[in-house]
Design a protein that fits this description.
5-stranded parallel sheet, globular
Length: 1010
Amino acid sequence: MHEPDRGLRLRTLGALALAGAALSRPKPLLLLAYVALEGRQSRRHIAELFFAEAAHPLQSLSVALSRLRQAVGERLSSDERTVEVGLHVDTADLFDALERGDLERAGSVYRGAFLEGVDVHGIGVEVEEWIYDTREFVASQVREARLRRGEAAAAAGRFDEAGSWAEAAWATVGAAACEPEQLTRLHDLVLASGQRVLAARIASEARGWGIVPAGDTASLRARFRTNAATQPSSLPTGLPEFVGRAREREAVQAALLGTEGRLVTLMGPGGIGKTRLALQVAHDLETARVFADGVSFVSLEDVPDDVRVATRVAEALDVVSDGHEPAAQRLTRALRDRRALIVLDDAEHVQAGVAELVAAAADAVGVRWLVTSRERLQLRDEMPIALGGLDLPDEEEHAPNALLASDAVALFVRRRRSLEAASPHEGLGGVARLCRAVGGWPLALEIAASLTRVMTIEELADELESRLDVLVDPGRDVPERHHSMLGVLDATWQWLAEPDREALRSLAVFRGGFSRVDAEAVVGVGVSRLARLVDRALVRPVEGGRFDLHPLVWRYAWDRLRGDAEAPNLVRAHARHFLGLLARSAEDLGGSERDAAVARLLVDHANVREAWTVAVRSGDDASWGAAALGCGRYLDGANRYREGVEWLREARERSRLVALGDDVHAALALGEGSLLARLARFDEAAAAIAPAVTARDARVRALAHETLAQGIELWRGSYAAAGRHLREAEALYRELGDVAGGARCTFVLANIAWVAGDWTEALALLRAAREVFRGLADRQGEVITTAGMGVVEMDRGNLTEGRRLLEHARRRATGSSLHLRTIVAVNLAHVRLLQGDVSGLEAELAHDLEVFQQIGDDPWVAETASYAARAAILGGQPAKAGSYLRAGLDAALRSAHVPSMAEVLVATGFVIAASAPDDAAALFELVRDHPLTYANTRQESASALALLGRQTPPATSSVGLDALVHPGAHAAVGSPAPMLADPLTTAATALLHDGLLPSGRVFELAPATP
């Protein structure tokens, strides 16, 4: 990204304008401001923020970016995924001036509130909130800087100047109402400067918060001078540079300066960074001169008992004893008129003493307490902030700069470089893995960094994923308790009462988190015990009312559990609980509630996986057998095809050994075969599913025939076989009274009619199936039939109607599986391609292609890549087309799916048509004449040939549904040709491996990854 150009300046303070460019429309300017200030953003996120109401948000964004680029040139850069802006923004000038203490410059820049007067009508709520939040934040920084300058002037005896700065702070445009602590500071400054009328007004507002400012001009002036002369710092110096924790740092400061933050407790286990964060916040507030009576740091580490806490704090604050009055009483009286921050470090072993002192000092309204402890103090007005690990990089992130932006990676790299001369980019992939293994725990990262003297990063990461005792560095210049992570966790364990130890140990049986109900049902940990562990920051509340353990806490607790005699019982209870959930969900997973059922189970995927593995490998037949059908349905609905094949294959092999029963074996076979079919491994799928066809359970037999028809024979082009299986499935569903099953069979028949080009029949079947699904409130069934109707209308040439139906299907697909949503999106992209609507289309298809590649659905990878190649050509990005074609050919050959090869070869023909028309025509003829080419692809090939001026024999006519599903005069149609002799396979192979076109000319394909 280029540096911001000073020639164009974006004004955001007092107005919204772009100096140096003829651009005045508010919405594009607001988009520029958002990205310029917030940094690089994903295209999808920006589209959702600014164009949510548009029919095609990404397309609308592409149009907007194109217009913006005309105004700002290369200062706006974007690719298929992200948008970035390099404009100079006046807000950056403001913060630069504030950081340097140049308030005169800051005042000239701050010409009004942030985005003052900007009309937010029609803008999303999130952007509106961003405007108001940023406006208040910017104004608060200006007001605080003015207030601090006034206090500095008062300390120097320049009270007229102090009053001017206080008055400016009070009148700061755009700022929210003053916090109580700020009101007191403003009152004292204004009264010290002699402005009694304004002081009375501020005092009146403070009384609304229950605060009564005291003092007169003379006494306040004396106090300002005294504080300036006699306020030495008690904070430790020479600390290493602070890394990360921006959110926590801001949260602690905001809490201490707000109305609810009289007592803030930083909670967490040893080595998590409580003391370091507390010191950094204290340094920040001391530097800013927020507290007139200073900031004090008091270590309680060696205080032996609760009764001596007050004495230690009094000594640290120089509150002198008279020999008679108790320390707590003397201290609370001395604090009553102070405005100070007191940091109490290492308070967990003297919590009662700290709680008693803070409660006794309740009248000292100007004093703020910041306490570090392994658990909260349990006071009513306490604001606990639990610290976890440092921020980790996303699992999918691999770019060096993005990895280094992670707090955990940054700390590890900085610590390693302090020990040896290492490049910051060296081994970052392994560093990210290591950081995840220790959950971003700062002490663990520092010890791990020191161990790179004797171990590689990869070796360390391998070790840390299974054991804790490797994290030892006795040579570190830190307290002995921090020499090893095992020692830190041992100390935490010893500190717990036995019931808490038992609960923590038991909770390690969960994987990936748990709910309150799970904790009680599986391991007997009730609400009160769970709350105690939360208050000790050993259990973490997470989204959705769930809880989890930090990875290192979990590893420690699991090691403790494994050595316990009760462990096998807990493991079995866990397995039966989650496999019971899977079994109970089987019916929902096969019906109209499938999306909701999949979503519920996905939350507990790690628990379900562990439960399944334990049951299969231990031979726990009861829980395993009952969950067999639900397991296959869940993994299919969750798009976890490769993982699911592994689960079910191991279970099926095990079921033979333990003689689990034919019904269970058939259910496992059905699940494995269905997932293999999703991966286009059709021969394996057919072999796997064979036992299910003869199952005693009629429902399993019906599902097996349906899967063979839709998931295997239809894709293989064996339409007569698909028809036979459909008739079997329909008969069984009628016997079972399963209306939804019958509708699914109708949908498959519609697919076969579509393949044959019998579009009238296909539409009639799809409409009939949709009506059934609507009557059953089966949203997924409605989506697939509506999308199917859209595709048929598209192929009939009714592009507008096809697009309308597909857009309706996309809206209805919200909440459905990612696989289904992406299939609908790709079909919608196809109709847009035919309409010539390609703005932003290539980027959307690139995203869809990545989804199918991750899922492992090769036929859809091929089809999506073929459309992306065509979109790249039409969108003026020919360099990308070859890359997409290679990806598509590779996937089509891997799946041996001839119709997918046809799609990619047609796309290749479009790509080369201008430069090599004879080669393009040869490819179109191959596709047009192949018996397994779908009717729509055959039609497209014939149309392309006509455009090239080639004669087109009547190869595009409809074969008809009847001819495909009932062997007869057209029995040869739909019979797969042997792979070795297949002309499409030969052409695709030649193109992929040698770039050879039919003429023998070499066509350069880009690398395989678009």
